[in-house]
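Minutes, methods subgroup
Present: GH (chair), OT, SY

1. OT presented the first of two proteins processed in the latest run. Sequence and structure tokens recorded below as shown on screen.
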Amino acid sequence: MSKYKATNENTIITDNVIHQRKEYGTIQMINIGDCDAVINDNIPLLPGDSWEWVNHPSVMIDQDTNVRFTGDGVDKRILVEMITYKEG
């Protein structure tokens, strides 16, 4: 059975952005502001909600993730956590 080490990188998005792929295995987004947002133009992310894309550690996400703010809120913040797994 393979063992994996996980490292994570956290950022806060405050503007519309295309989050570039970086060979990570899991991505989680949490809307910590008060403005509605949408992921990849079809996944709503309301204030307080979260969304995640989880793969087996040996599978990497190879797709950009688009985040766009759509609401009238003034606090535009989404916490993004990307987790990368390495065998070892």
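2. SY then presented the second protein from the same run.
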Amino acid sequence: MHSHPWRRAALATLIATTVLGCAGAQAAGGPALPVTGAVVAATMTCKVTAYGADATGVKDSTIAIRNAITACAAGAGPNTVYFPAGTYALKDTGIANPTLKLAGPNPVILQGAGRDSTKLVEYAGVANTTTCPGGGTTPGPACPVRSLLGVAVDGSTVEDMTLDTATYNAGTALGTVANNGTYLRLRVTHGSLAGGFFSVYFAGPAGATRTTPTFNTGNTIDDLILTDSICDDSLSYSFQAAGSISNVQHTGSRLALYFVHDVTVTNYRYTPGPQGCGAKKQGFYITSPSSNVTINGFTSSGAGGVIGQSTPPSANIVLNDYRLTGSGGTLEVGDVVGLTIQQQSGTCDMGDNVLRINPSAPGTLVAVRNCSLAMVHLASTANALLAGLSFAGDTFTVPNPRAVTFSDVKNVPVAVVFAGGTYLNCPSKAWFSNSTAPVFAGANTMTGYPC
């Protein structure tokens, strides 16, 4: 999962080899010509069209944009590299990957005129017969696929533009190995190219692994529209701590939270894409041992998400106002010490979908609070590993064609606790066979129990 082609380059290989400066402060619409060796003052604006970038999308703008970035990065700033409204073609394949780099020595603000006004298009993809003669299908010497933008300097900002790697089925649209980055009001369109080319890739520090973890911190994503056709992680937020993702409209594959700590996701709207890889269209996937992850207002019209099976387990995962609006989906729960699914300020409603609990090791604890749900399935081979399952204030319903609400609740060593809720339809006491008897506490409305 973490063999991404450009990440292996590490920070040192992303440092620019040429330093160009802005010739004084640039007035709105005024010239900003590169002057070799010039000292750049703070809070400058380097407009890419003044460096020769073509906003019509006809000519290649790669070198012009790289020069503008290098110029603004030479000053303490952070300075602004500004893209007037238009389309900017990135066609130069004779350069290192990724095509554009924020590599310092200082952070810059990469700013467009709005995500519906400024677009950057990566041409080096497998759907481009110029870069891939004969129509290549995989990256290689005859098909030099590129990713669009890499960020390797702390404190950078990318905002108000579209990053397009879908048109020519190119690599990652946005990747970073830096800290304290801000990514605002972006649109990302990504194709089907797999092999580590995630749509948006927060990779963590170079060399980070689950056995020797290190973390990037403080990275923020807000107001993202993401569309992809990939059968892999789409938004991969990996080895991150003290970060946040908010206000995302995502159509395609999945959000991957890979070994993260103290991360908050807010208002994430997920719609499965048309790609034929249902197993990867999971809504979200949390890889252990993640901890202190809070997801507020996740809504999916497809699958409900996965909390992975592996040890050590994840811990302290909270799903607030969690909603599944489709039918026949699953929230798959593997190994987690402390999963809470609850209503907070909105609605917690799993609809006609399944909460499936299937740990691989002892210790999983799950609590559901003030939610509406149709079916709970405990994988029978893993029930003996369950450390706790409780419900409080929940409404259990069995919409057709569901026949039961609980299934395979067998050989559970702990009592399943119902503390104040409404339970409808109780067709079989075999739910709790060979298990500790369930505990009903508080004001419960039960129909037909014991069955």
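Chair's summary of item 2: The chain has two domains: 1-281, 290-451.
Next meeting: continue with the remaining queue.
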